[in-house]
Design a protein that fits this description.
Layout (H helix, E strand, L loop, with lengths): L10 H5 L7 E4 L2 E4 L5 H21 L2 E5 L4 E4 L2 E3 L3 E5 L17 E5 L5 H5 L1 H9 L3 E6 L4 E7 L4 E8 L3 E3 L7 E3 H4 L3
Parallel strand pairs: 7-8
Antiparallel strand pairs: 1-2, 3-6, 4-5, 6-7, 8-9, 9-10, 11-12
Length: 183
């Protein structure tokens, strides 16, 4: 029996996709992501709005939402739901996509991408230098805030249904968890 090695996709393959194609490049595979649900978008909008109200007046940096390509390796180009880059690092950006590790990445789990968000993408975010990683799980109405530690991410807080979300990235920022899942 002849075994053939599956060709891994690269950034060059990804760039040949039509603009707006619903794919992410994860570990050399083009992974199709269906469009998010209304609930997913409601959650994303609430978090992004609260963060913008905190970030913009303080001129802390830029916050972006999906879909926006984040190029992390030759075989990993993701579209996190929300990302933040500190003001002092914005000058490092080159071109139209994000080509540096964001300081903060927020992923809202969905059935089609949860495995990647919790496994491979989490590892690549850490290796790339993402300082803070939030996992928002609509199914159990939880938010896990992880911070980069010496060897991996350390859970700073895990909030389920109630509690106050606070971020080491943004001292003074807070929002009630129940406000995120009000829909």
């Amino acid at each position: 029996m002849l075994l053939t090695e599956k060709k891994r996709a690269t950034i060059e393959d990804y760039e040949r996709l039509p603009e707006g194609a619903p794919y992410q490049l994860i570990a050399g595979e083009l992974i199709m992501s269906p469009s998010p649900t209304r609930f997913h978008q409601d959650i994303s909008g609430v978090i992004e709005f609260a963060l913008k109200l905190f970030i913009i007046p303080r001129d802390l940096g830029k916050i972006y939402d999906a879909p926006l390509d984040v190029e992390l390796t030759d075989t990993d180009v993701y579209q996190p739901d929300i990302l933040f880059i500190r003001k002092e690092r914005l000058s490092l950006l080159q071109g139209d996509r994000i080509d540096i590790a964001p300081d903060l990445v927020i992923e809202i789990l969905s059935p089609s991408t949860a495995y990647y968000d919790l496994k491979h993408k989490k590892e690549v975010y850490y290796q790339s230098g993402v300082q803070e990683y939030w996992i928002v799980d609509p199914a159990d109405e939880s938010i896990e805030i992880m911070v980069r530690d010496k060897e991996y991410y350390r859970t700073e807080s895990l909030l389920r249904k109630t509690g106050v979300l606070q971020s080491p990235m943004f001292p003074g920022f807070s929002m009630k968890v129940e406000e995120v899942f009000v829909f």
